[in-house]
Amino acid sequence: MKPKAQSPITTDLSCEVCGQMPEPTKTRLTVANVAVMLPIELLVHAAVVETQLPYVAKVLVLTLTATVLVIWVAEPSAARLLRRWLHAPALRHRKRLSSAQSLWRARTILRDQPGSLQKITQSLARLDTNILSIHIHPVAGGVLDEFVLSAPDNLGERELLEALRDGGGRHPHVWPTTALAMVDGQTRALSLAARIAGNPAELPLAVAELLSARIEQPRPVGSHQVAGTSMDPATTLKIPTAWSGPITFSRPGEPFTPAESARAHRLAELAEILAHAPAPENR
Question: Residue 52: CB partners within 8 Å, gap ≥ 6?
Fold first, then answer.
């Protein structure tokens, strides 16, 4: 059998890993189902009511027929015929990301006072740079703002750093990134927590995936660090484990945020609890 050709919307929105489409919003899904089911319900009722069947038989026929038509006809038809409308919000979001000529991640420290964010937003807007997402982390001396930016293709790291400084940012950093930076961190952390719940030994790999970091191999006892290879503390994260000692992660050029450190430590606590939990008794 020849594989079914994918429609443009399926190609645009299907997951590269599992091939599934994103879930439409509940409101749109409800409206689509009602729009498809209502004509079917009216036709079935009109056809059955005119028959000479007993009242109980009519009720049974209507119930069974409507249920079968809804499951086998209405819902698949709604998903197929109204697919573009159902997934319109996701399509707009994907188009917005695809149309961005350059995507950057940026971090800078701002004063924790009114107007600070507005000032840096205006500074970036002067360069035609759009803020796609923002996360704010309290730190000593202010707040650490983390942005995902879409910028014109002719802008480089230097121009973005200058804009962040002009907007009042301190210690700014920028890195080229991809649309994967838009993945919700909390949802990703919960998915990895479920992975650790199934096997606590997955902790190092799960944390490395969560933080896009590298696992540092422990140095042998008595070995000395080579000169010039010291790691920046801001780009190094160490989490404790009860069974194998601390695990060190590094992400050169991209400091860990307090929120990322907290998520990693919570995953380590989960793994430790599960590793020491008593095995369930077989009954």
Answer: none
As given in the structure block, the two tokens for residue 215 are: 């696992």
Write the CATH number of the domain with boundaries 100-181.
3.30.2130.10
**Could you state, in order of their start, the residue ranges of all structural domains in the chain?**
16-91, 100-181, 185-220+231-275
- pTM confidence score: 0.42
- Side by side, the strands of the sheet bearing 142-151 are 130-139, 142-151, 102-110, 170-176
Long-range contact set of residues 114-122: C-beta below 8 Å, sequence gap at least 24: 116/143, 116/168, 117/145, 119/167, 119/168, 120/145, 120/164, 120/167, 120/168, 120/169, 121/167, 122/167
pLDDT tens-digit series, residues 195-246:
888 888 888 888 887 887 888 876 655 555 544 445 667 788 998 887 677 8
CA 52 to chain centre: 57
Strand order in the sheet with 247-250: 214-216, 247-250, 236-239
**What number of CA atoms fall less than 13 Å from residue 187's CA on the CB side?**
4
Q: Please state whether beta strands 130-139 and 214-216 pair in parallel, antiparallel, or not at all (unpaired).
A: unpaired
Residues 24 and 86 sit within 8 Å (Cβ to Cβ)? yes
Tens digits of residue pLDDT in 11-50: 555 544 444 556 677 787 777 777 777 777 777 777 777 7
CB atoms within 10 A of CB 35: 15
148 in Cβ contact with 181 (< 8 Å)? yes
